Amino acid sequence: MYLLLACSLFVGYIGIERALFYGNMDAGKAFAEQFYTQMKLRRCDQAQQLAAGAHGGLPLILQEIFQGQAGPDVKAFVEMQSGIFIAKLRNRLYYLSVIVTMAPLLGLLGTISGMIRAFSVLNIQSGQAIAITGGVGEALIATAFGLCVAILALAVHAYFTQRLDRIITDMELCFSALETMAEKVGQ
């Protein structure tokens, strides 16, 4: 039970930490769409101002590109910076998937050990079957708690995985607009 309690606290910690991190690093879908529109209309100055005025990982990468920090190979720079940013976004999500798998197993382990204790009472006090029922009920609590922890971890993992996918889609939209603009300028 103590391991399950530790797992539930860890899930809570990861959920809060990731929510704060994503809140600071996610520029939002509206930013990506506005940036894409500005680049499509060949308004690089407005797109640059938009990136400078926004917060998050994507606007920071775009600002570095506009400031010339990308060097001659912008595509390689974008891939490298995107990889670093996505790795930061994925940080600790793996632990949630481990807890989703591990929590029910810990609950079952608690149930089995509780059942063993309950049946050992029967061996000691033969003929007292009523003593088992309390032990069985107590043992099943471990399984229920393990399932609750797993469900919570699964929900948190699914939420942040979906949010990560949306951020990646926004990044691809902005970078494709940059690439299209670079191709048009190169002609």
TrEMBL record:
Does the keyword Cell division belong to this entry?
A: no
Q: How does it sit in the membrane?
A: Multi-pass membrane protein
Q: Where in the cell is it found?
A: Cell membrane; Membrane
GO CC list: plasma membrane
Indicate where this protein is primarily found: membrane
Q: Read off the Pfam families from this record.
A: MotA_ExbB (PF01618)
Keywords for this protein: Cell membrane, Membrane, Protein transport, Transmembrane, Transmembrane helix, Transport
Q: Which residues form the MotA/TolQ/ExbB proton channel domain?
A: 67-172
Name the chain's protein: MotA/TolQ/ExbB proton channel family protein
Q: Which organism is it from?
A: Megasphaera elsdenii CAG:570
Instruction: Kindly list the organism's lineage.
Output: Bacteria, Bacillati, Bacillota, Negativicutes, Veillonellales
